[in-house]
Structure formats: structure tokens, C-alpha cells
Design brief:
It is globular and about 70 Å long. The strands form four sheets. The chain has an eight-stranded parallel beta sheet. It folds into two domains: 476 residues, TIM Barrel (Alpha-Beta Barrel), CATH 3.20.20; 43 residues, no CATH class. With 579 residues, the protein is of the alpha/beta class. Helix 7 runs parallel beside helix 8. The protein has 17 helices and 21 strands.
């Protein structure tokens, strides 16, 4: 039986051949909680068998993965394309990022990422029309694409549009801003987050104190400070931490789950971790460039190199160590690319004489997974299972796409990567060879090497990359809808709601008792969580694929147990045991 799909919008252009079959053999399958040696059989874009001694029909394409790992296709939560920069609260319409959906998704596939999530921003307040326009641009994608929606203002029309997008268009994440052109007041943030919670969605928060940034920028420029290094003074750690703390207070008041987009400072990390320890539903995302560069790059003699690493909030001096510690320890959960590339000429034109006007954004959609491997796994900071969590599984759970995506199991999408190890390559050089990096764009990943890389990439059951041979097809991807009330987030919140009712109701009744024991509620609207039938366990045993929770309060993804013994890996019989 296949896992329930999240209603991708299928286009009429030809897809993979209906009878295409793949047999991937000899590799070690790496999921977020388990590594095991097994083979995989793929048919019609879906994983049909996983195990040893599989029954393989004729007419298959065999992929030998001996000596390599097989990991789920990556999921990148932050990829921009066809984007105009917003500087000094003004959209610069005559400057556009170098990538469209085709080139960005092609780069993603070559780096092992098979699903990207971009942003629908558009005109202020026109959420639905902007979403439809961006969705049309996504049809050129080579891999699966989905969209976050930016809330750029707040009124009753915006509230109604958010409801429509979440119920009819498969949107379950909305981004809000605490700085810049679309900065919301605290009162507006309260109302927006409250509505997001009612919809069963999640808020992405760009946390910086915009009012202070504007004043500090004006002061520094008046004193003649125009170089990129001044971004660290204008957007210092305290300014980020203040906004993070304010957002945590507001979101806690309305019990809205939040993801902080692009966390860079230690103070912000500590606040997020403290809130998580205290039980608040909060997550943190970092950008891949923050693993390989830090704030010292803004003082680089090459202005283009400094400008290539500008992010908001900015990279911090010695920040890469803090970020990797937070990822390894679980304080932060996602590594995205933040891919948003402008050519050097446009950056010089806009920001050479004013650091405030350097468009934020770096490359990274191709380099992301290799950057995590080189800075994490190769240095012993994380293991291969955590690598899968940070690059795929956590995002799949967050987006409510798990286990369709983010896991190698029977019924999951055949988005797979054969990951070769112990062969060093230069990220910048290979990106140039694959025409991922444009000639007039400085790479933020110069001089970065990785000993892990994709050798074969399978998307929708089709081999799109095989050791230098590229078979990427435009418009092969789907526009993926995402249901609200992701179980990994809202099961816990629904339980808290039920417990709150218990404390406030003098006489408990049977309907409340049922909601407490079954986690599900009969309330109409956002708090109703539907668990797929295939996850039911008639014996009463805990469904490991259904929930990330353990009885100790931790999550299954938090502590992989490589010493456990398994006789039945997902999808088939096996006599392999892990020692």
C-alpha cells in the first residue's frame, strides 16, 4: 500500500515512463533512525520493495551502490528564484536574481536535493494572486517544488486569504517579518500568529529589530562607514536576540509554533534552546553558508567575496562553531541553502557605496548537503543518521510530507541519492563545471571541499544524475501541496489543548476522555489531526513511523541507536544485524 499523498498538482506534460523500474543494490540505506544494508526496488516513481533477496521482475535498470550510502532525497526549506531585492524598504524591480525555477531546481538535483520550498511574496496584501503567479513559475521545476507564503501586511482581507491558502492551496507555513519593508508591529504579530495557530499552520519568523537596524544604518553611513564589515555593527547579535525573545513571548501567548528563519547568533540560539526546554513549540533553521564561512568574511579584501556572503541576519565572527554545536545538540533542526543569487555587477551597482544596499543572499542549493557532510560528518560532529535528519527528514516532518518524503521505506516517493564517500571534490569547481554557478557570480563556497557527494540522484523514480551524466528534464517536478496540522507538531499541541480543557472543566465527560486517550479531537477546524490508516497497529504497539515521540519525552530522530539489532528492515526480510 502506498503512503497517502499530499495532493501534488500533476501537469499534463510527459513524466517518467510508466513502466520504468530501478533496482538499487549493494548499498547501505541510511534513514534518520537506522542504517542497514539492503536493496531497493522502484517502480513508477514509488519505492515498492526494500530488503534482501528481493523478487525483481524483468526489464529493470540496475544501479550498483556497493561501498556507498543510499539516503533520502534532500529537502531545502529556503530557495529563492525570480526574486527582486528589497532595500531601504523599496523593491528594486530592475534587478532580478540570476536563477529561475528551472536553473534553481536543476542545481538542487545535482546536489542531491529533490524537493525545494520557495517563497510567495508579491504585492503587499495580495496573497492569493501572488501565490498563483509564483505557482505558475514553479511549473518549470525539475524537482518537486512547494511554497511558503509571506504575510506582508495585516487586515481582514489578508486573514481571509491566509485561510483560503491553507484550506484550498495546501499552504501550511507563513513567514512574518520583524524588520524591513514588511515589518509588522507587535500587535499585528500577535494577531497573525494567533490566526496561524487557528489554521493549524506554522509561522516562519525573520527575527531582527528593524527599527534599531534602520537607525544604526543611518548613523554608520553618516560617519562614512560604507564597507560590508559594517553589517556586523548594524545588525549585531543583540538586535537579533531581542527580536527572537520578543517573537518567543508573542508566540507563547497564542501557543503558535514558530520556526526562526536563518539563526546566526549564539544569544539567539540560547533563547531558542531555552524555550524548547521549557516546552514551547519552536524550531531554528541555519543556512549552509554559515557552516563554511563566518562574519570575518565581511572584511575580506575582495569586495565581491564579502558581498557574496551577505545574509540577514549576518554571519557572526566564529559563528560556524556555535551553529554546528547547536545542530549536533538538537537546539537547531534544519539546514537550508537560502539560495538567492545576484550577479556581481548588480551587487556593486547597488551596494558598493552603501553596505545597507548589498542584496542579501548566497548560493548553496547545490552545495548544501555536501557542506553539512564536510563540516559535520567528516569532523565527527554528527553521524550519517543525523545528516539525513538535518538535510531531509526533519523538513519532511515539519512540512507534513513524512513519510512520503524524508524516508526510504515501501510506499515512499522514489527520491533517492546514492552518496559516495571518501572522494574529495571542490564544491566551487564542480558547481562551475555543471554550470550551476554563473560566470559573473562569486561563490560563497570557494575553497570548500567535501569527501561525500552524490554519485547517483533519483527523482520521481528517474535517474537524473549519474556520475557526471546529467539527465535533468524541465517541468518534471510537481507543485506539492502540504496538509495543515503536521502530526510532529500538532499532536502535541492538540494534547495540550485537551489537557487545558481538563483543568478548566469542572466535570469531565466521555468525549473529552476519548480526545485525551486518542490524541485526536472532534473539534472542527485547525486542531483536527487525521492519522493515515496505514499507521494503525492493531496489537497496540507503538507505531514508530507515525510519531517521533518516545516515552522518555525525546524524539526518535534525536538519538539514533546504531547498536540495535533489526531482523526486519522496512520493506522486506533481512538477516543483517548491526553491531
Amino acid at each position: 500500500m502506498d503512503f497517502p499523498k499530499s495532493s501534488p498538482i500533476r501537469k499534463t506534460i510527459p513524466k517518467i515512463a510508466s513502466g520504468e523500474r530501478l533496482h538499487i543494490k549493494g548499498g547501505r540505506i541510511v534513514n534518520s533512525d537506522l542504517t542497514t544494508k539492503a536493496d531497493i526496488f522502484v517502480e513508477n516513481g514509488v519505492i515498492r520493495q526494500v530488503g534482501n533477496d528481493l523478487t525483481i521482475p524483468g526489464g529493470v535498470t540496475c544501479i550498483d551502490a556497493t561501498g556507498s550510502l543510499i539516503v533520502p532525497g534532500g529537502i531545502d526549506l529556503a530557495v529563492e528564484f525570480d526574486n527582486n531585492p528589497v532595500l531601504d524598504d523599496v523593491t528594486i524591480n530592475d534587478v532580478t536574481s540570476v536563477d529561475n525555477c528551472y536553473s534553481a531546481s536543476r542545481a538542487a538535483l545535482l546536489g542531491g536535493t529533490t524537493t525545494i520550498v520557495s517563497f510567495s511574496t508579491g504585492e503587499k496584501g495580495k496573497l492569493v494572486s501572488s501565490f498563483n503567479k509564483k505557482s505558475e513559475a514553479c511549473e518549470a521545476g525539475c524537482c518537486d517544488v512547494s511554497l511558503h507564503v509571506d504575510v506582508t501586511s495585516w487586515n481582514d482581507d489578508v486573514k481571509e486569504a491566509m485561510t483560503k491558502l491553507s484550506t484550498k492551496h495546501g499552504v501550511n507555513t507563513f513567514r512574518v517579518f520583524m524588520s524591513g519593508q514588511w515589518q509588522l508591529s507587535d500587535e499585528e504579530l500577535y494577531d497573525v500568529l494567533k490566526h496561524i495557530r487557528e489554521l493549524g499552520c506554522v509561522a516562519l519568523v525573520h527575527a531582527e529589530n528593524g527599527s534599531i537596524i534602520k537607525k544604526e544604518g543611518e548613523r554608520l553611513l553618516a560617519e562614512g562607514n560604507v564597507l560590508p564589515e559594517n553589517i556586523l555593527k548594524c545588525r549585531n547579535e543583540k538586535i537579533e536576540a531581542e527580536a527572537v525573545n520578543r517573537a518567543l513571548v508573542i508566540s507563547n501567548q497564542v501557543d503558535c509554533p514558530v520556526l526562526f528563519w536563518n539563526v546566526t547568533g549564539r544569544k539567539a540560539i540560547d533563547l531558542i534552546n531555552k524555550a524548547r526546554i521549557e516546552g514551547q513549540t519552536v524550531y531554528g533553521q541555519v543556512l549552509a553558508v554559515a557552516l563554511v564561512q563566518d562574519g570575518s568574511v565581511y572584511s575580506d579584501p575582495s569586495w565581491n567575496k564579502a558581498a557574496s556572503c551577505v545574509t540577514w541576519p549576518p554571519l557572526r565572527k566564529d559563528g560556524s562553531e556555535d551553529i554546528m554545536n547547536a545542530l549536533a545538540g538538537g537546539a537547531l533542526q534544519f539546514v537550508s541553502s537560502g539560495h538567492n543569487v545576484y550577479n556581481d555587477h548588480d551587487k556593486v551597482k547597488l551596494g558598493r557605496k552603501n553596505f545597507m544596499k548589498i542584496p542579501p543572499g548566497t548560493n548553496g542549493v547545490y552545495e548544501r548537503m555536501m557542506a553539512v557532510w564536510s563540516t559535520g560528518v567528516e569532523k565527527g560532529r554528527i553521524d550519517e543518521n543525523q545528516f539525513v535528519s538535518l538535510t531531509s527528514t526533519n523538513a519532511a516532518r515539519f512540512l507534513n510530507l513524512y513519510p512520503r518524503k524524508g524516508r526510504i521505506a515501501v510506499g515512499s516517493d522514489a527520491d533517492l541519492v546514492v552518496w559516495k564517500v571518501n572522494e574529495a571534490l571542490s564544491l566551487a569547481e564542480t558547481a562551475s563545471e555543471f554550470a550551476v554557478t554563473k560566470p559573473d557570480c562569486t561563490s560563497a563556497f570557494e575553497d570548500v571541499e567535501s569527501k561525500g557527494r552524490p554519485s547517483v540522484v533519483v527523482a520521481h523514480g528517474k535517474v537524473v544524475y549519474n556520475d557526471g551524466q546529467i539527465s535533468v528534464v524541465q517541468s518534471m517536478g510537481d507543485m506539492v501541496e502540504r496538509p495543515v496540522c503536521s502530526p510532529s507538531i500538532y499532536n502535541r499541541l492538540t494534547t495540550k489543548d485537551a489537557l487545558h480543557k481538563t483543568r478548566t472543566t469542572p466535570t469531565p465527560d466521555s468525549s473529552l476522555f476519548r480526545s485525551l486517550n486518542g490524541i485526536l479531537t472532534d473539534n472542527a477546524g485547525a486542531n483536527k489531526v487525521t492519522t493515515p490508516e496505514r499507521f494503525s497497529r492493531g496489537s497496540g504497539h507503538r507505531a514508530m513511523h507515525q510519531s517521533g515521540w518516545s516515552f522518555s519525552g525525546g524524539q526518535a530522530e534525536d538519538s539514533p541507536r546504531p547498536s540495535s539489532r533489526f531482523s526486519n528492515p522496512p520493506g522486506g526480510q533481512s538477516h543483517i544485524s548491526l553491531t
